[in-house]
Amino acid sequence: MIQKARTLAAATSLAALAAACTTGPGDNGVTVPPNAGVYKVGAPYQVADTWYYPREQPDYDETGIASWYGATFHGRATANGERFDSNALTGAHRTLPMPVNVRVTNLDNGKSLVVRINDRGPFAKGRIIDLSERAASLLGYKSQGTARVRVTFVGQADLPGGRAAHPETPPDIASAVPAAPTDRIASATLAPVPGTASAPDVQVDALPPPPVPTADAAVAVQPTGIVTTVPVPVATHLYVQAGAFTSYQNALRLQAHLGAGMKISSIVQNGQTHYRVRLGPFDEIGEADRALARVSGLGSNDARIVVDQ
Fold it and tell me: Which residues make beta-bridge pairs with 240?
C-alpha cells in the first residue's frame, strides 16, 4: 500500500512519523533500542493549517477512523522518547498525554483491545488514531488499512522499566503560541441567524456507555494482547462533524457559514446537551474522506469523521 507521511511541527524536535499503512514484515530485522520514555503532555503545535492542543483527557471517548503504521518506523523514537516497536501494542494520538492506555474497539467486528499511546499522529485528515501493525492485526483490520473504531481512555500507563509516570510541568502556553480558542473560530465572527431564538424540538440521543467486554469480566486494563468481543451496532454510518456546541445558536451560525447539506443533531453527554453540525450519513470511508475535504475547504479546520448509528 502507499505510505503517507505525516510531519510533526512541534516546539520540540521529533522524528518523522507515519499516518497510514505498510505491508512490510513485523520487525524488518531491526532490534529496538532500550526505551527512555518520559511522561509528556506537550505544548500546542501546528501541522499544516491546524493547531493541536495536547491536554489531560480522562473522559476521552471518541469515534472515528483508525489507520496503522509498521516496519518502516520500527526502532525509531516516538514523541515521548520511547522506541516504536511494530510488534508492540501501541498507538499514536494527536492530543492525549503520553503514555496512557486506551481501549480501541473495532466497530465493524466488535474486537476490543487495550493499547498504549506513546506517539503523536495521525495527521491525515479523517483519522483519529494510528495503531501499531500488531494491534491492527489483532483488531482485524490490517489488510484493509483502516477501520471504524471507538477509542476510550483507560488510565495513565507506567513508564518503561516499570517507573511511575510523573506529570511534567505544564508549558507556558501563553508565551509559546496563541491561546487555544474557547469556541469554534468559524462561529465567533458570524452574526446570529435572524428569527432563531431557541433550539427546535428535536430528538435528543444519549451517548451509549463505553464498550465493556462480555467474555471476561476481569479483563486487564494494560496492553496484554487480550482481544475481547463487545457488543457493537449491527450497522454504523460515517458523518463529517464540523463542530459540537452546548449553544444551539453557535451551531446555527456554523451551519449557516458552511451552507447547504449541513444538519444539526443533538446528543446528551454527562447530562449536557450538545448540538452537532454534521454532513452525512456516508457508508464508505472514501466517500466520507471526500466530504471531509469539501468541508475543510470551506474553512472548517476542526471538521472530522465520526462513526454513529
Answer: 279, 305
At 277, list the grid cell.
453540525
Cell representation of residue 67: 489507520
Same domain for 129 and 240? no
Residue 76 counted as domain residue: yes
Kindly state whether residues 133 and 262 are assigned to the same domain. no
Q: What is the pTM of this model?
A: 0.76
Q: Is there a domain that residue 222 lies in?
A: no
Inter-residue contact 171 to 43 (CB < 8 Å): yes
Same domain (yes/no): 147, 193:
no
Task: Give the per-residue pLDDT at 70.
Answer: 84
C-alpha cell at 216: 471476561
CATH number of the domain enclosing 292: 3.30.70.1070
Provide the number of structural domains found in the chain: 2
pLDDT digits (tens, 9 = 90+) for 261-309: 999 999 998 889 999 999 999 999 999 999 999 999 998 888 999 999 8
Please write the tens of the pLDDT for every residue from 165-220. Answer: 665 544 433 333 333 333 332 333 333 333 333 344 344 454 455 565 544 434 45
61-72, pLDDT tens digit by residue?
999 999 999 888
CATH number of the domain that 91 lies in? 2.40.40.10
| Same domain membership, residue 199 and residue 142 | no
Cα 233 to Cα 6, 88, 106, 157, 307: the distances in Å are: 32, 29, 11, 30, 11
| CA 119 – CA 105 distance, rounded (Å) | 19
- Cα separation, 10 vs 6, in Å, equals 13
Residue 247 included in any domain: yes
Which residues, listed in sequence order, are joined to residue 282 by a DSSP beta bridge?
238
Task: Identify whether 174 is part of a domain.
Answer: no
